[in-house]
Amino acid sequence: MGYLLRRVNWASQGCEERGDLRIAQGRILERSASLRPRRRDLIVDLEGHWVLPGLVNAHDHLGLDLLPALGTPPYSSFYDWAEEIYRPDESPIRDLERAPQADRLAWGAWRNVFGGSTAVAHHDPWHRRAFASSAFPVGVVRCAWAHSLGFEKGLHRRYRPDRPFVIHAAEGTDDRAGAEVRELERLDLLHENTFLVHAMALSADDIEILARRNCKVIWCPISNLHLYGQTAPITALRQAGVNVALGTDSTLSGGLTLLDELRCAAETGQASPDELLAMVTHRATAAFKILDGRGTLEPGGRADLIVLPNRGSAANSLLAARIRDMALVLVGGRARLAGPDIANSLKLGSPNAVVDGARFRLDDSFITLRDRLDRILGPDYPHGDLWHSTAEVANVRMAPDFDEIH
Predict the structure, then answer these.
(1) What Cα–Cα distance (Å) separates residue 292 from each residue in 285, 301, 332?
(2) Domain residue limits at 319
(3) What's the CA gap between 22 and 5, in Å, rounded?
(4) pTM higher than 0.90, yes or no?
(5) For 147-181, how does the pLDDT look when each residue is reduced to its tens digit (9 = 90+)?
(6) pLDDT tens digits, 24-48
(7) Which of 70, 140, 365, 377 lies in disulfide reach of 381, CB 3.0 to 4.6 Å?
(8) What is the DSSP string of 191-207?
(9) What is the total count of domains within the chain?
(10) What is the distance between the alpha carbons of residues 248 and 242, in angstroms, rounded to a whole number?
């Protein structure tokens, strides 16, 4: 059984076209101006919509996304913020520990689904059992990582040449943040596979070093502006040829979803809508060396894609999108989220959740996850905005064949 998406506008790697897409066995099998239905195809008419590659969130801490924003900004560096907020024996950090790690990770993954992110670079320990499960809502990019120069000893033991190496660096506005690129160079940790998260306090010499070493930068504009009142010099980095990807950071300081980060990034004027679309699709997968077709809609590639209302160009439609606008999110060809009309066409069942004021068909796993976390954390836990924007539609059960449709 497969999906035939008809009369779609689709965008991939800077090209925009119109036609049909066929999806089966977790892959994009064909795309053409017109495709003939096959006997077992489930057909969806997507007139008035864009189909885009699933977005890539280049930086998140999935296990922290149940936490609300903490701290009293502005700060001069990450280290000042961390010293103020890290109180493991106090609420909410103490209370969050009551929730199983698997549930915390799953909630962070669903945060990404709601914003159209189908792949996430998780900046914390790897949890093989959770991330390898077919039930986990998003794909997780395997990275080597270190937290930061100030919080890690033996950074060389963290570095691996065969994986993306991700580290918080130059986060803030003070001299300590401004010295970190030179310190990483002294330690010989700036390489083609090195990703600097935040990279705010950069001199012209720092930018030249990053460009010469072909390092990558992960931009988290909402977190930067919230904590420090300014953000990374993206224009200068891009002009120097540095590949920039976009990330949410955790809900401790970042936006609700990657959609919010995209709008914030656009408001800085440091990248055009088309450049921002590239940052969260094919340029991100190229940076992380994800070679299975994600970030594109190329035939044969993994079927990670999103469907949004058509509001002009593909990039402008993405920048205008909110959670409530998500019409379909496919991860590996599996529908994780669908609006009512598409859910009906794909025989997924009736809506079973309300998110951001809109009705959706979600995996039942989200409903049970939210109920379980509600019981564990209790009514006094200071939940963030995503929690308050979700609500179950009562007495709706999942169609029995939901998990069988790929």
Answers:
(1) 9, 6, 10
(2) 55-338+356-406
(3) 6
(4) yes
(5) 999 998 889 999 999 999 999 999 999 999 999 99
(6) 999 999 999 999 999 999 999 999 9
(7) 377
(8) -TTEEEEE--S--HHHH
(9) 1
(10) 19
